[in-house]
Specification:
This protein is α/β, with parallel strands linked by helices. Helix 6 links the parallel strand 2 and strand 3 (131-133). The protein is 48% helix and 11% strand. The chain has 2 domains: 4-14 and 84-215, 3-Layer(aba) Sandwich (Rossmann fold); 17-80. The protein has helices at 17-31, 37-43, 48-58, 64-80, 90-99, 112-121, 146-155, 169-178, 193-198, 207-215, and strands spanning 4-7, 103-107, 131-133, 162-166, 181-184, 200-201.
């Protein structure tokens, strides 16, 4: 039985990944670095610290911090302008989950300040989440299982009683390693055959309601 739902934030609750994708290619030209779509997808869901650490190892002579700072600045401009839309079905799903007394958590690679800004700007109280593990946390980030295990303990449920809602491969991997169920709602990264074999693929957040009802029959 599923008792708890763990949310990703970017690309799952809010349409931020499309903004990142747009700026990713613009800044690649500006900074004269060749990073392909496979590389962009590999970064989705990871904490900012982990992305920078991996980039510095892979591109030791590149101005990683300036590049990532520029990417983040462009994203936050859009958030502050209110140009980030909520993903289809978000409010309906949150209403369902809270009215049916599911426990909620969030695991995101974004810093807590940005998460709170996104939530409050869309009229969502961050307090509906028992725990939020953000990108600045000392807990090992996705794709490691540590954050999922931590959230389950905080919510006082087993990992097998949790489902992770994700748009990115790294979150799916972490959830499965922790023993959670995983649902992928693709955004800018289509599911691979491997992901299809370990996760349930849905079209939007509204479909999560039927998924939960079927799981808990």
């Amino acid at each position: 039985m599923i008792k708890a739902v763990i949310f990703d934030c970017d690309g799952l609750m809010f349409d931020t990944e499309s903004v990142v994708k747009e700026n990713f290619y613009k800044l690649n030209k500006k900074f004269k670095i060749k990073l392909d779509e496979f590389y962009r997808i590999s970064c989705i869901g990871k904490s900012e610290a982990l992305v920078r650490e991996e980039m510095k190892k892979q591109f030791p002579d590149f101005a990683v911090d300036k590049y990532r700072d520029a990417l983040i600045a462009e994203q936050e401009k859009r958030i502050l302008k209110g140009n980030i839309r909520a993903m289809d079905g978000l409010y309906e799903l949150l209403d369902y989950l809270t009215s049916h007394h599911y426990k909620l958590a969030m695991i995101s690679g974004s810093p807590i300040k940005r998460i709170h800004l996104l939530l409050t700007s869309h009229g969502i109280d961050p307090k509906i989440f028992t725990v939020i593990v953000d990108g600045d946390s000392e807990i090992k980030p996705k794709p490691y299982p540590d954050a999922f295990i931590y959230c389950a303990k905080k919510m006082r449920v087993k990992t097998s009683e949790c489902v992770m809602l994700e748009d990115a491969f790294n979150g799916i991997y972490g959830a499965i390693k922790a023993g959670c169920k995983a649902v992928m709602i693709p955004d800018t990264a289509p599911p691979t055959e491997e992901i299809k074999s370990i996760a349930t693929i849905l079209n939007n957040l509204t479909e999560v309601i039927s998924y939960l009802e079927n799981q808990n029959r």
